[in-house]
Amino acid sequence: MPDMEYSFMLEQDLITASAEDDIICAAAYAGEELAAGTFKTDFQRTSFTSCRFAGCDFSGSSFFDTSFTNCYFSNSRFSGCYFKNCSMNGCKGDGCDFSQSTFIAGKRALLLWKFFKYIMERFFHSPGQVLYGLLIGQQVQKTEI
Q1: Which stretch of DSSP H or E encloses residue 14?
Q2: CA separation (Å) from 138 to 55, 83, 112, 131?
Q3: Which residue among 12, 57, 75, 89 has the highest number of C-beta atoms inside a 10 angstrom radius?
């Protein structure tokens, strides 16, 4: 696995990756702020530390081996996203949409379960949102909040 390159250009990287249908791989972002924008891209082995996302739309994006640490999410959309081997630690958020998203654990079943539980407890404030999840190859029941 290559070493992660630290970047302070999250917004530019997202614009480029979305426009060129490219991936963001082995990148680490710290202290970045992203306000609004629609970004559909794939993330592989990417880490976000103390980043802020406000009004961003990542719908249809995929996250593989991606971590979020001490990040803040406000009114952002992650509907129809695919999360595999992802973690979210010390993050906060309000008004986010993870409907129709899929969560796969692979070798990290416990982390996925914590991630799934965190999302359900913290981000789903509106009734009628639907979240689909997969845990260790078995479908978690459809949950309506």
Answers
A1: helix 10-19
A2: 32, 15, 13, 15
A3: 57
As a whole number of angstroms, the distance between CA 124 and CA 56 comes to 16
Per-residue pLDDT tens over the stretch 24-52: 999 999 999 999 899 999 999 999 999 99
pTM recorded for the entire structure: 0.70
Q: What is the 3-state secondary structure (H, E, C) of 61-74?
A: CEEECCEEECCEEE
What sign has the CA pseudo-torsion 64, 57, 24, 6? Answer: negative
Q: Are 34 and 14 in contact (CB under 8 A)?
A: yes
> DSSP letter at 31?
S
C-beta separation of 49 from 30 below 8 A: yes
Question: 96 near 117, Cβ under 8 Å?
Answer: no
pLDDT tens digit sequence for 61-83: 999 999 999 999 999 999 999 99
Q: Return the beta strands (E) in 13-69 as ranges.
A: 23-25, 27-30, 33-38, 42-44, 47-49, 52-57, 62-64, 67-69
